[in-house]
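User: Some background: our group keeps a shared notebook of sequences we're curious about, and every so often someone picks one and asks for a predicted structure to add to the entry. Today it's my turn. The entry only has the sequence so far, pasted here. Could you supply the structure so I can complete it?
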Amino acid sequence: MNDTAKLYQSVTDSLAAIPELADTVQIFYQRFPLEMAQELESFDVDAYFNINDEEEPKPVFIVATKSAQPSGMDLGAVSFAISSLVAASFTTLACAIGAFALNPDFFAAVQAGDVSVVSSAVPIAEGLAA
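Assistant: Of course. Here's the predicted structure to add to the notebook entry:
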């Protein structure tokens, strides 16, 4: 068993020794990724990593109550998600059409009443959405 596994086992054994805590909390182990730590300006990388020796990062334990559950999707959350999807789709299509509107031929066709050229903006809209 490596050092990380021994440490995790030690922490879980210590938790199990206190029945009041063992019944109410759960522990998760996470190694803090070095790449993310380097992106954070205020993060003290040296406190969690020994970069010169390329050791594994120090362990991070996350403690949560066992009663913590993800929130459910109520009608308000679903309607907000759908509204956001519609607004984002409209904005993406408008951006793609705007890019084509700079093309004089596209602009002239739309002004002449030929809206079939709008379908040529769909690939750009899909690319923007991706």
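Suggested note for the entry: The helical segments are 3-16, 19-22, 34-39, 45-48, 75-101, 104-111, 122-129. Residues 75-101 form the longest helix (27 residues).
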